[in-house]
Every structure is written in structure tokens, then in C-alpha cells.
Amino acid sequence: MSPARVTIAAYGDSLVEGWGLNTADGLPAQLEAALIRAGKNARVLNFGVAGETAPEGLLRLPEVLEAMPQAAILEFGANDCYQGVPVEETEKALSDMIHGLLGAGVAVLIAGWRTREDLFSQYADDPMLAGMVPLAPPLFTPDYVQRFNQVHKTLAERHGLPFLPHILDPLGEPLPGQASHFQADGVHPSATGARILAEVLAKALLPMLP
Questions:
Q1: Cα 50 from Cα 9, distance rounded (Å)
Q2: What is the pLDDT of residues 116-154, one digit of tens each?
Q3: What residues does 6 pair with on adjacent strands?
Q4: SS3 track for the chain
Q5: Confidence of residue 177 (pLDDT cuts 50, 70, 90)
């Protein structure tokens, strides 16, 4: 008799959605395959939406809960910092999602996002690129960066949740020798990168699954 199927929700933005990849190459499909190889009768549902901030993702929480997953990867933050969403709003939205998931009996793995002070400076300081690339949002200051980079860790510690500090850490820096881990933008994982992330996330999820 085969074990009961376990459902995992990949809940986040383009980084879990599999932006730019075929469905079979995206993180949800590759994570499902990794869990099956590890002996779990798993299905991973794709609740990633490109471009979403945490407050926007919160609006979809009822849809995620309706699927009745046993576990969820919660991954929001990249778009929040790119858009300069106030840190307090991002933290509250993530906290509300965590409360909602835990309240429904869903185990939660937090996949964080780490930003840096020089994220926009190379564009802002080059007059040849003026008007062609985004400038730093008004709220994007060194203080913002410092506070933002504590949000996911704080929430993980507060709720005692497993925590990946930065979802892209397993891929290393997008250097020329590692270009195959990323797509051309240097941010979104390639099919190879998604497979690496899937293996890391599968190992983190296995102790959380029934």
C-alpha cells in the first residue's frame, strides 16, 4: 500500500513560480520530483505569482488554505524591497500569512530574501542609464536595508520555524562560472538552479512532513 499523498504549497513570488521556465523545469515541479525521489508521495502546488509583494500575496491566503496543504514554503520579499514597501507592512503581511497557515495546521518553511545597500546605486550613479533603469525608491535607505534584512529571521525565531535566510544562497553569486544557475537577469534561477534549490528545500521539508 502506497503512503498517503502529502501536499506542499509553494507560496510566493516569481522565484517559486518558475518565472521564465517551462513548467517541468520550474521549482514546484522539480521540488515535487526531489521529494518523490526521497520516498515521499508528494505533490507541490504552485502558488507563486510574479511581481507580488507580501501584502499582495496575503490576499491569496484563502486560496492556499483551500488546497489544504500539509506544509508550505513561504517566500516573499524581493519585490517588497525593489518597490520600497515599508518594512512594517511587509512584516505584518508575512506574520498574517504565518498565523493563517499555522492556524490551519500547515507546517511552514520560511524562505527569506536579503537585500543590500548598493542594490540601485550602480544605476543611479551612471548618467548614461538615466531614465532607462529603476532608481531606488524613496524609502530605500541604509536603515531600510538593515531593518528589512531582519524581518524573515525575526519571524522565524518568533514562531520557531525552519528558515532559509536567502532563497538564492544555495546558488552562490551569479558569476560567469556559475551563469547556468541563473537566467540572464542574474536573479531568477535557471532550470539547473531550480533543481539545486529543489534539492535543498526538499531536505529542509522532509522532517516537517507526516
A1: 16
A2: 887 775 444 444 444 444 567 888 888 999 999 999 999
A3: 42
A4: CCCCCEEEEEEECHHHHCCCCCHHHCHHHHHHHHHHHCCCCEEEEEEECCCCCHHHHHCCHHHHHHCCCCEEEEECCHHHHHHCCCHHHHHHHHHHHHHHHHHCCCEEEEECCCCCCCCCHHHHCCHHHCCCCCCCCCCCCHHHHHHHHHHHHHHHHHHCCCEECCCCHHHCCCCHHHHHHECCCCCCECHHHHHHHHHHHHHHHHHHCC
A5: low
Distance CA 169, CA 30 (A): 18
pLDDT band of 50, cuts 50, 70, 90: very high
Q: Catalogue all structural domains in the chain, each as residue range(s) with its CATH number.
A: 6-208 (3.40.50.1110)
- Residue with the bigger pLDDT between 105 and 139: it is 105
CB 75 within 8 A of CB 111: yes
Q: What are the pLDDT digits (tens) for 53-71?
A: 999 999 999 999 999 999 9
Cβ 14 vs Cβ 51: under 8 Å = yes
Residue for grid cell 520579499: 77
Calpha distance 36→72 (Å, rounded):
17
